[in-house]
Structure formats: C-alpha cells, structure tokens
C-alpha cells in the first residue's frame, strides 16, 4: 500500500462521514452503481452535445468524457463530488504534493490521478497531453490564450466565463459549469443546493456571527500582509456566514483580489476576528512586531490560526472543501476568548 493510499484509508471514515452529512439529500445515491456509471462516462439524458461559452470563445462536448484532466485548482474536487475521478489533477504549493487534499481522499476511486506540478504558475502542457484526456477542465486557473490554444489542441478545454476574473469565481457557478460539461448538470445543481443549505443551516445555528467583523489575511514572502476581498475565494465563506468586512478595509479593495497591508497600516485590520492563513509559519515574525501585538483584535484573543490544510481548503471553495472548512471555522471561532465572553 502506498503512503497516499494509506492516508486515504485512515481518513476515509471521518471525511466520508462529514461529506455525507453535508450533501445528504443532494442526490439519489452518492456511492455504488451511480458512481460507477458516472466514472464510466454515463451521463444524464440529453446532456450531449453541449456548448459552453468561456473567456476565449466556446467549447463543445459531444459525448460523455471518460478521461478528464483537471487543471484548475479545486476543479478536481468538483469532479470528485460528482463521482468522477480525473486522470490528472493540479498540484498547488501547499499541504499536499499529489494534488488531492485530505478532504477529497475518500472520493478518489480507482487509480491515483497523475499530478500536474506547478499548476498555479507554469505547468508543463506535455504532462496534460501524456494523460491522454478527452476533456480538460481548467475553470479555476489563470489560463492565457496561448496556453488555451495548446490545451484545446489536446482535447476540448473548458474555462471560466468571459465576465469573470481569474481566481475570483463563484463556487456555485464553477460547480454547475463543470457539471454541465461532464453531462451531469442536474447532479451539479443538487450539489450546490445541498452545500448552500449547509451554509444556511450553519449560519442559522450561529446567530452570534451576524454583525461581527472578520478578515482573512496571509503573510506574503515580502513580509507584508495581504487582506482578502470578501469576493475572493478565501473570504467568500466568511461573508456567507454573516460576517462583515472591517470598516477600514471595506473601500480599499477596488475590485482587487487582496490588498497589501504594511506594518504602519495594521490598524486597518481591527475587527472582531482575524483569521490568519498558515499562522504558525508567520507567528514568530508577527509576534515580534508591537504594531501587530498591540492590535485590539490580537490582545482580545480574536486571532484565529489556520493550519496549512485548512488554509489550502479555504482558498478553493467547492462541494468538498466547504463542509470541511465550515466545521473548522465554526469550531475555531467559537473557541476564541472573544466568543466565550
């Protein structure tokens, strides 16, 4: 048994249970023959042919794909949530080196997908070609036109919509877009509805979040912090749970994914809860800066440390990561000194 399979075996019970709770009622059957049929290329009636517009034109899929390559970050999770195991998955610089997050391990069936290295920067197109895909999903990625032409020469390639910005994509639309391309539009809609219901239930079960302010930050390699826009992937879930953007930050994003916060401007981060991406990696440096440690949110115990796995998951909201992140967010927020007062 390989180390990856061993990890999947250990996590299968806990994460499969979590995923089952999250999407209960979303589909007739999330396992067994339905999954086998989907993986074999079966699709919903009248699903093909389908043409989907995107930022570089349109892509037509004429029949159910059987070898799907996922190039977009989190796109593999969407496929796995639909019962489809891709032949290739993207690798990001984070908590895993095989492109499969722990939240997705129980959903992988059959052979392990090929890992596409450096998927968020400069991946090797030849690696995609070698996987021999009949459909390439590159929705959540910053694909330029030259790369698109190379990918579409290999197989029909799906990108995000023309009116959307790289890395700032609504997870609901990503899910339904991918579901349509693989011939499972109704199932994709059910996945979205199930996760939206889970978010709504979590918000209703935690009315103390309403009206509170929260921000999510990361320490960049240049030493400065970046605070994420409420429309960015990392912060979308905070907004959906009822949190508001700190007033001092609200007008600074200007349609940008994030805004740089240097030490002299740390006071812009004053809020009820400050969620810090990969905080342990930055803790020593941050706690050596009085400008940070003297913030009210820090002194009151409102800083929430996100470990590498949660930090990865929150950066790519989708039907598999959201249940995992919700559980972590709610537990960590409610365990803070601020929440216990």
TrEMBL record:
**Keyword match Transport:** yes
Tell me which GO cellular component terms the UniProt record holds.
Answer: outer membrane-bounded periplasmic space
Provide the alphabetized UniProt keywords.
Signal, Transport
Q: Which InterPro entries does the protein's record reference?
A: ABC_transptr_periplasmic_BD (IPR002491), Bact_iron-sidero_bind (IPR051313), TAT_signal (IPR006311)
Subcellular location field = Cell envelope
Q: Which Gene3D superfamilies match?
A: Nitrogenase molybdenum iron protein domain
Major site of localization recorded for this protein: other
Q: Which GO terms describe its biological process?
A: iron coordination entity transport
Q: Name one Pfam family in it.
A: Peripla_BP_2
Q: Which N-terminal residues, if any, form the signal peptide?
A: 1-24
Q: Give the family this protein belongs to, as stated in its UniProt record.
A: Belongs to the bacterial solute-binding protein 8 family.
What name has this protein been given in UniProt?
Iron complex transport system substrate-binding protein
The organism encoding this protein is Rhodococcus jostii
